[in-house]
Design brief:
The complex is a heterodimer of chains A (about 550) and B (about 260). Chain A is α+β, with helices and mostly antiparallel strands. Chain A has 3 domains: about 200 residues, no CATH class; about 240 residues, no CATH class; about 80 residues, no CATH class. Chain A is built from 23 helices and 11 strands. In chain A, the strands form 2 sheets. In chain A, strands 2-3-9-4-8-7 form a 6-stranded mixed barrel. In chain A, helix 3 packs antiparallel against helix 22 and helix 17 runs parallel beside helix 22. The longest helix of chain A has about 40 residues. The longest helix of chain B is centred in the middle third of the chain and has 21 residues. Chain B has a 6-stranded mixed β-sheet, with helices on both faces. Chain B has about 260 residues and is an alpha/beta fold. The chains are: A alpha+beta (about 550), B alpha/beta (about 260). Chains A and B meet through helix 1, helix 18 and helix 23 of A and helix 3, helix 4 and helix 5 of B. The structure holds adenosine-5'-triphosphate and magnesium ion. Magnesium ion binds next to helix 2 of chain B. Adenosine-5'-triphosphate (ATP) binds next to strand 1, strand 2 and helix 2 of chain B.
Chain lengths: ~550, ~260
């Protein structure tokens, strides 16, 4: 009874002791904030990392191929059994992408993935990341009229038709043409010329407008869209065009509707990662802008190695049909997707005799909650590395370096922050020693009145426990509040300092993700209280050992 | 020491003294509530031995008011602490109610201190964080666990208020020690010493720190309590006037009892 009363009274009359646990409070609060943000971050990152990776992948290393993939799948189905949800084939090949932007050729290296339209979406989380809403339900590699995300600006068939028409105008202007046609098209040409001119000026605003040539020339095109190829118009004599028309000889044998007409037809469809050919930047006004060097509807060239014993480069014309944005910069800036069959055909991966084709990897989707590592190990056991040179990995294995780096970071942060609380423990130790010294006489009195040593000890222990609990409790509340309002706090800090704390162009998060794990909060609380108790044990022991006569002599 | 006090002591203790016969160990037959035989105590300061008590024999009789007087440094406080089991003697025995108490395990010593001894100190030794009433109740709180105390709280509080009434402090039950005078604090300490209905009251210069008037009040309180409650009191003092009022006087000189 007296223990409770006294430790309560000591607590009430010594608010300064509370100061000694402010560090506990701060430590607990930071631990909670850091852990919540880190696990929010890691969770988000894992989702994104997993995004276009399958649960388990059986891949041939490098540019190698897996022959007879169907037979492999049969075995995989047998080995994995009930856990198997879906399987798909992927061809993966590094490629060069070539495109024209503002009159220049740009080359970019990409990782080209040939994916099966029907099954790829079942194995990975690819579909939701597509920017055309029509493709999210079922992947296809056709250019769409509508359905593109508004952030892409003008794109799709409409854009393609306008662009082709526009190009035609320019071609006509610089190409061989009679004085008549020049005069006839003067109005349209002058527009084109002026936009070209303005693109050469140094004023960045002017230039930004010039990146979008279409709005400037659009009114002129409306009329010409219906007839994008005037040179194919029989009204114009073929003789005028022949010198500059590479297809002149074809034109005599192929009817116009059978010919490739870029205003009507597309090349091989390709889906690009949004970061491959787009840049985010800050305009002088401080707003974020996105520049697309190419957009759905544009044509690009892909150069890739053929399959087989003597790979040789082959170039394929492609039409961008969509972008995907998984918000993982690493993926968005590397991967491009194409139809599996088409890619196999381009790379000559189909055996002309048997009709069977080869793939780079077989990707497997497992049921929710299946043990990925166990499945991987079973597959490795069936395809022993010394017989099959396959790389069999879970998505976590693939991203191991990143994941383990992040885990390491979390661990180190936790250790550091716990050290802060441990330092706070020494503060408590010192404060409590002083309180015990101050209370020496009281301890003597209590002992003279028959209080046992452990009773005196528990006064100071419960004092420590209450201080630790109060400090921890306040810390938890503060930490949780901070986590809850973290985005508001970030924007306040941003407003005060004028500096972006959480740059979405780097992280692609518009909000700071947080996950509060109750277990983490519980462990942090237990740890902090334990440190407070440990720190009060020594002073309490000293109090218990005090000799009553010595204590009473103290006056 | 006055002759009157001496005679009084002799009158009361004569038969017992004869029976005890010098330094012979105490017998059960002797109705003394607390007795000490051949008690030695020295303090060690480094290698230096400071002998304080050098063979003390005392008997304290029931319902008597005994004073221990002696010069400063003669070991009075030391002796009282030994009697109160706050310290252990180097040699010798202390018997309380026919039971040797100097070699008991700590738990039983604590129990005796809590229930059988009431202690009063020169510097009051109240707990500054507690009110007068709570200070008086402390021995009861030490005695009982939480639930037992809560059950008996009403009874204890009544008794504490009764005691505070007796010592004349019923109007100050909610004051802190820092808000009271020395005399009031000492009377609170007396009430605290009596809350557990002890069989013996050990007081170390209870008036040593008080002016004459408050000292007199404290003494009056103690004397009347001794009369009404039939208390056994052992009081350390160097005030001859107080010794005059005692039933018996024990004089300590150079670590020995010179006069009983
Ligand atoms: N802890 C200690 N260490 C060393 N010497 C001590 C200690 N406590 C007491 N003494 C010595 O023992 C002797 C007796 O002390 P004690 O306090 O019993 O005297 P006292 O008779 O009560 O004196 P006073 O009347 O001043 O209170 C003194 O000489 C003192 O210096
Ligand atoms: Mg003394």
């Amino acid at each position: 009874m007296y223990k409770l009363l006294l430790s309560w009274r000591y607590l009430k009359t010594r608010f300064i002791a509370l100061a000694s646990i402010v560090s506990v409070t701060l430590g607990v609060a930071t631990l909670i904030v850091v852990n919540s943000v880190m696990s929010g971050f890691v969770g988000e990152m894992k989702d994104r990392l997993h995004g276009i990776l399958s649960d388990v992948e059986i891949a041939s290393p490098g540019l190698g191929e897996i022959n007879w993939p169907d037979l492999h799948v049969k075995e995989i189905e047998r080995i994995v059994g009930d856990d198997l949800l879906a399987v798909t084939y992927v061809v993966r090949v590094p490629a060069l992408m070539n495109f024209e932007f503002r009159g220049r050729q740009w080359t970019q290296q990409i990782m080209l993935m040939g994916v099966d339209e029907k099954t790829f979406g079942k194995v990975t989380d690819f579909n939701p990341y597509l920017l055309n809403s029509k493709k999210r339900d079922a992947i296809n590699f056709e250019l769409e009229e509508t359905g593109y995300d508004a952030r892409l600006g003008e794109c799709g068939w409409e854009y393609r038709r306008k662009k082709i028409a526009n190009q035609q105008k320019i071609e006509d202007l610089i190409g061989p043409s009679t004085a008549d046609s020049l005069v006839a098209q003067a109005s349209g040409q002058s527009d084109v010329t002026s936009s070209e001119d303005s693109s050469l000026t140094n004023d960045p605003n002017q230039r930004a407008i010039a990146f979008e040539p279409l709005p400037v020339v659009a009114p002129v095109h409306q009329a010409t869209v219906t007839d994008p190829y005037p040179q194919m118009n029989p009204a114009i004599p073929t003789s005028q065009l022949s010198a500059f028309d590479p297809h002149a000889d074809l034109r005599d044998h192929v009817r116009p509707e059978e010919m490739f007409n870029p205003g009507r037809d597309q090349h091989t469809g390709i889906v690009l990662g949004i970061a491959i050919s787009s840049r985010q930047f800050m305009n002088p006004k401080g707003d974020r802008e996105e520049l697309f060097m190419v957009r759905p509807g544009d044509d690009i060239q892909i150069t890739l190695p053929t399959s087989g014993p003597t790979p040789s480069p082959i170039t394929e014309n492609c039409t961008i049909v969509d972008f995907y944005s998984s918000n993982m910069h690493e993926y968005d800036s590397t991967f491009a997707f194409m139809s599996l069959e088409k890619l196999q055909e381009i790379r000559r991966m189909v055996d002309p005799v048997t009709g069977s084709s080869t793939v780079s990897s077989i990707q497997v989707k497992l049921k929710e909650g299946a043990d990925l590592n166990a499945v991987r190990d079973k597959l490795i056991a069936f395809f022993p590395p010394n017989q099959y040179p396959y790389v069999i990995q879970t998505w976590q294995d693939t991203q191991r370096p990143l994941l383990s780096a992040v885990n390491m970071e979390v661990t180190i942060l936790n250790i550091l922050l716990f050290l802060i609380i441990a330092v706070a423990g020494f503060g408590i130790l010192a404060t409590f020693f002083m309180i015990v010294v101050e209370k020496t006489k009281d301890i003597g009195i209590l002992k003279a009145l028959g209080a046992p040593s452990h009773g005196v000890m528990s006064i100071f222990l419960s004092y420590g426990v209450s201080l630790g609990t109060v400090g921890t409790g306040v810390g938890i509340v503060l930490g949780l509040l901070f986590v809850y309002f973290i985005n508001d706090i970030a924007s306040v800090i941003q407003w005060v300092t004028g500096r972006e704390i959480f740059d979405p162009t780097i992280y692609y998060f518009s909000q700071i993700p947080t996950v509060v794990s109750p277990l983490m909060v519980f462990l942090v609380a237990i740890g902090a209280i334990a440190i407070a108790v440990l720190a009060s044990v020594l002073p309490a022991l000293r109090a218990a050992r005090l000799h009553p006569v010595e204590a009473l002599r103290y006056e | 020491m006055s002759d009157a006090a001496q005679t009084k002591t002799l009158q009361r203790g004569s038969s017992k003294n004869q029976q005890a016969g010098g330094k012979a160990p105490l017998r059960v037959a002797v109705p003394s509530v607390l007795s000490v035989s051949d008690l030695y105590k020295s303090y060690h300061k480094g290698r230096l031995d400071v002998p304080v008590l050098k063979g003390i024999d005392i008997q304290i009789h029931e319902a008597e008011f005994t004073t221990i007087i002696g010069q400063s440094g003669s070991g009075k406080s030391t002796l009282l602490h030994l009697l109160g089991t706050l310290d252990a003697p180097d040699k010798g025995e202390i018997w309380f109610q026919e039971r040797r108490i100097d070699n008991l395990p700590p738990r039983q010593k604590e129990r005796i201190r809590n229930r059988d001894f009431g202690m009063i100190f020169q510097f009051y030794h109240l707990l500054p964080e507690l009110t007068t009433l709570e200070n008086v109740l402390i021995p009861r709180m030490v005695q009982d666990n939480f639930f037992a105390y809560m059950r008996n709280k009403k009874k204890y509080t009544e008794r504490a208020k009764e005691l505070l009434d007796i010592v004349g402090l019923s109007h100050r039950i909610n004051h802190r020690p820092s808000e009271m005078s020395g005399g009031e604090m000492q009377r609170t300490a007396i009430a605290r010493a009596l809350i557990s209905k002890p069989s013996i009251l050990l007081a170390d210069e209870p008036t040593g720190n008080l002016d004459e008037e408050s000292g007199g009040e404290v003494m009056n309180t103690l004397m009347s309590l001794q009369q009404t409650e039939n208390l056994t009191i052992v009081m350390v003092t160097h005030d001859n006037a107080i010794a005059d009022k005692a039933d018996r006087v024990i004089r300590l000189v150079d670590g020995k009892v010179t006069h009983c």
